[in-house]
Amino acid sequence: MSSIILIPAYKADYRLAQLVEQITNTSQIPIVIVNDGSPAEFKPAYTAAAHVPGVTVLTNPVNQGKGAALKTGFLHIRSLPADITCVITADADGQHSVRDILAIAQASVVNPKAMIIGGRRFDKDVPPKSMFGNTVTRWVLRIFFGINLYDTQTGLRGVPRSLLPELIESPFDRYDLELEMLMIARRNRIQLIEIPIETIYIEKNRLSHYKPIRDSARVYFVILRRPITRLVTAAIDYLVFIFVYILLKSVPLSMLLARIVSIVVYAILLKKWVFLSPEKLHKILPRIVLLGSFFGVVTILLIQVLTARFSITPLQAKLIIELALYFIFLITQKIFSSLPNKDSSSE
Questions:
Q1: 3-state SS string over 16-71?
Q2: What would you report as the CA-atom Rg of the chain, rounded to the nearest whole angstrom?
Q3: What are the φ/ψ torsions at residue 93 (nearest 5 degrees)?
Q4: Is the CATH code 3.50.30.40 the one for domain 2-210?
């Protein structure tokens, strides 16, 4: 088992060659650099890095984003011998020390089925936007998805080779891919091991290509796209129920039409927002229909019970029931997602 280092780079300077020289002077780990469409005036930095033994430089013809650069590297690494079991992703701007990069590489070789996270500690000299963004994301992932990491946005990671196909197929091409990487690991029950690393911010992160508003919106779409899909579907289900009930005064018929419309909308949103392939969508659609029908019947029965016992209308009863079922679903999902997976154990 061995590892390989992947460095996506845009507008890199002399520090890139210095970084790879320091790595190759202390280890035999091969390095892949992806020039993500940097302007011509930055070519000398990549040429200097390419002359370092053990370094391969790939080039995207135009700038496509950090995620796209990582995918270019992943595609190349998939063609390499199978004894490379993990990919160490690192930034090109000097924010990751050689010692920490090699520590993540060593941990990845020891735990080839786990994802190793190089976690920074935001205790001093940290730009406010970095502190705020990481803190919010940390708590969102912890509360809603059971992902307990201190640093959710670090670029220093050890990625198991087994995840490369899904990462390459992901529709995300910028910083959002790094959050999607965590979500993919969670779906595959991949163990996340966080190792503390040095926190380095050069010139208060002035050279970062991260755009706070645009890239943050993309990142949070990755995190919240499934909950938003479910909430939008539930809202449409309720609105159709209200409309039909006002016209027909029939709870069963209102529920039937509401479920038909909401299931169609849910399938569309799974394709458009969650990016499920037609094959995966067709595979899970029968289960969606079955669960939607089952809970529709349960809701009809509960509406009858609540309206008989309390002075509320069917519209009020349905809202109460649907909210209760939604929170039960979230709690159940969190419990099952936190169960350990034998195949992802580091032991």
A1: HHHHHHHHHHHCCCCEEEEEECCCHHHHHHHHHHHCCCCEEEEEECCCCCHHHHHH
A2: 24
A3: -100, 15
A4: no
Going residue by residue through the chain, which has 347 residues, state the pLDDT in tens, using 9 for 90 and above.
Answer: 689 999 999 988 888 989 999 999 999 899 999 999 999 999 999 999 999 999 999 999 998 889 999 999 999 999 888 889 999 999 887 788 899 999 999 999 899 899 999 988 766 566 655 666 677 777 888 877 778 888 888 889 999 999 999 999 888 888 788 888 998 998 888 999 999 988 766 555 554 555 556 656 777 777 778 888 888 999 999 999 999 999 999 999 999 999 999 999 999 998 888 877 788 888 899 999 999 999 999 999 999 999 999 989 999 999 999 888 877 876 766 565 555 544 433 33
Task: Give Cα 306 to chain centroid, integer Å.
Answer: 40
**C-alpha span between 246 and 235 (Å, rounded):** 17
Whole-number Å distance between alpha carbons of 92 and 23: 12
Residues 6+ apart with CB under 8 A from 80: 4
Classify burial at 67, counting beta carbons within 10 Å of its beta carbon; exposed 0-12, middle 13-18, buried 19 or more.
buried
All residues at 6 or more sequence positions from 139 whose CB lies less than 8 Å from its CB, including other chains: none
Amino acid at position 194, single letter: E
Domain residue limits, the chain: 2-210, 225-337
Contact, 40 vs 73, CB < 8 A? no
Helix or strand or coil: residue 83? coil
Question: Do the beta carbons of residue 147 and residue 156 sit within 8 Å?
Answer: no
